[in-house]
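Researcher: Final request for today, and then I'll write up notes for the group meeting. The sequence and the SMILES for zinc ion follow.
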Amino acid sequence: MKSNLHHILPRSGVLRSHSTYYKPQIKTFSGTPWRYIRTTGMSDKELSAIRIDRDRLWKDLHTTCEWGKGERWGENATDIGMSRLASSDADKQARDWFVKTTQDLGCDVNVDAMGNIFAVRPGMDNSAPPTYAGSHMDTQPTGGRYDGILGVHAGIEALKTMKDNDMETEYPTGVINWTNEEGARFPISMISSGVWAGAIPLEKAYNLREVGSGNATQKSELERIGYLGPLEANHKANPIAAHFELHIEQGPILEASGGKIGAVEGVQAYKWHTITVNGRDCHTGTTDFQNRSDAMLTAAKLILHSHNRASEAGCLASTGILTLKPGSTNTVPGVVQFSLDIRSKEDAALLQLEETLKSEFSKIAQGEEIGGLNARGTKGRGCTVKWQLDTDSPATTFHEDCIKCVEESVSDMLGTSEGPNVQRMTSGAGHDSVYTARRAPTSMIFVPCRDGISHNPAEYCSQEDCGNGAQVLLGAMLRYDRLRASRKT
Ligand SMILES: [Zn+2]
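Model: Predicted protein-zinc ion complex:
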């Protein structure tokens, strides 16, 4: 069949019965070969001419943001944040919209045991897994309208555009809504893609209780809203061929450089520790400096030292939790605990930083002079330091084939894949793509968000940037489909 005939033959001669097309199971389109255009029959130029409907994307996104509205932060109609916690009533409304919209597009829609929704638009060969766009529709309690939501909507817009253009992909294409990515209500982030990837046990996920005083579990709430699906939540039972995720950057890099698109190469490694500094409680008025084991003063030095060493190594180090005992103005604290979150693009650099800090923290706590931290002041009796590893997330490297499809798609849109408009970058935050990358070729597309702000009602991505991201997502999916066909995978 010659799909390029699409351009010269009348489109009206084909009559596909909707009753065939809309059946909720996978069907091929190929009964009418000369109307539908195949990705393998398209030149690069033809591929780049397929455009999403930017107004429709914008309208759809703000329509679903009516469910789970949060705090108003500005004057415009859409200057309202989101508070759509996973498996809440508002989440159910957004899910129902997702299911209806994708079914109306002719998708086969399935829900797995973690409530992940997979909508699949059939291709020519439906014996192979789909090429997916995926992200999440749940938000933080004081979140915005773009984190996750944009990625899901852009995936749906990509499928709508394929339909508008009578496109027939070689393999199925689809969109995924992952459950509880934020980990805001059930406190493990990316938990459902984690279960799918085999990294988190299903029972652990099911038994997770909601944050706060309620008794609901992830399982009971999925059941309540009707999204505890029959499909096994497992990459073997429900494989995916590739995963593309459009997301707002959630950082300031693109905005600062004037870049339009980030072609994300991977996600940085991170480790979370709890550090305990043990000293001795004593009276602040009667104990001179030489005779103190001041756990708080020591912790302050260690936190500063982690920052200095991380800076030298091109890594990140942050403390977000600090507790001290006994917590009295006139008692020198004997015990201090603090969190230490360290991050790097590379596992080896992270390990090096961790080892350096482990060795030097103890020495600094004993009063040894390192990095100027004990150069001044009065030496005391010293403290001891204990480390506890809470989370270890290795670096994720995305698949070069997927990254290339993204870059080529940027080139389709902008005329070039080089220059300041597009840049390769590493994600500082975790995403569902971290887990899909363990089981399938994956990459992400970043678009700028204002002031790099997210997890905040005022999170904002312009209509232009939303549209750019969705356009690149569509192009990457189509190009990947063509690539698969050329390799027969
Ligand atoms: Zn997100």
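Model: The first helix runs from residue 18 to 21. The mean pLDDT is 91.
Researcher: Thanks, that's everything.
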